[in-house]
Amino acid sequence: MPVAMKLEKEAEEEEEEGSLISLFTSYANEMDAVYDKRERILKASQEITVSSKRVICLLHRCVNENEENGWKIFEQAVEKLKLLANDQFKTVAFVLKDEYCDRYEKYYSSGLQEYIEAWSFLNFLQYKKLITLFEIRQLLQYEFCDDGNVRLRQIHISYFDYVMGIADLAGELMRYAVVSSNSDIVSVNNIYNFMAAVYRCIKLLNLNRKRGFVRKEKEFLDSIMKVENIFYNRMLLAADLHSAIEVE
Predict the structure, then answer these.
(1) Neighbouring-strand partners of residue 149
(2) Out of 56, 94, 157, 171, which residue is the most buried by the measure of CB atoms under 10 Å away?
(3) How far is it, in rounded angstroms, from Cα 118 to Cα 148?
(4) Alpha-carbon distance values, 178 to 47, 222, 234, 240 (Å)
């Protein structure tokens, strides 16, 4: 083979090899960026989960407090939940920027559901109503300055994550009803009516094909049945006491 042709072939091979190395380097950098985002989101989600559970534990103290102290606890809970929105959730929103959120949603889903559960528990204790998906979305939207322009970014919240967060509320309401039953049977009745109404709405959504939903739905129904039993046992006990007093 002539020397010129040999040199030309070697040059082509080197160029091709350089192109492949450049391509794989580009892929490696892209994957590193994905892994970095995933780890940052997972870390934020874990912190959200832990802090939301602490807020729920704080709210359970309300049952033994008077009205004034109860509202102080509510204020503390609101402050802690808003801090999560302005810290960890804001980090997630900044990391995602304009990325396709569905790609990363599973990494913050568990923290988001726990956060929704905490807010919904607080909202019930304060106002005896369910927090809406719109209200949650309003809490998790942020303004960012990008190239001198102010842009609005939201944490993507799917209907499924919202419903799963609400479904977890049943267990907390059941535990709250157990403690409340010793002093306030009216509250137990209100909890039962609220849970039954939410359960009927969840059933209408027909999400049985979604992973994990069937178990959550069963747990919700079990909690309703426990609250119902608590209510009827208290009513029977009250009736027996009334009868005993009349006999005396």
Answers:
(1) 146
(2) 157
(3) 36
(4) 29, 14, 11, 20
Instruction: Give the Cβ contact number of residue 117 at 10 Å.
Output: 23
Q: Which residue has the tokens 């005896």?
A: 128
Digitized pLDDT (tens) for each residue of the chain, 248 residues in all? 555 555 455 555 555 555 666 666 666 667 767 788 889 999 999 999 999 999 999 999 987 777 788 899 999 999 999 999 999 999 998 888 766 567 788 899 999 999 999 999 999 999 999 999 999 999 999 887 777 777 788 888 999 999 999 999 999 999 999 888 776 788 899 999 999 999 999 988 877 777 788 899 999 999 999 999 999 888 887 666 555 455 45
Which burial class, exposed, middle or buried, applies to 197 when counting CB atoms under 10 A from its CB (0-12, 13-18, 19+)? exposed
Please tell me the pTM assigned to this model: 0.85
Rounded distance between C-alpha atoms, residue 192 and residue 185, angstroms: 11
> Burial of 208 by CB count in 10 Å (0-12 exposed, 13-18 middle, 19+ buried)?
exposed
Which residues are within 8 A (CB) of 64 and not within 5 positions of it... i.e. 6 or more apart? Answer: 179
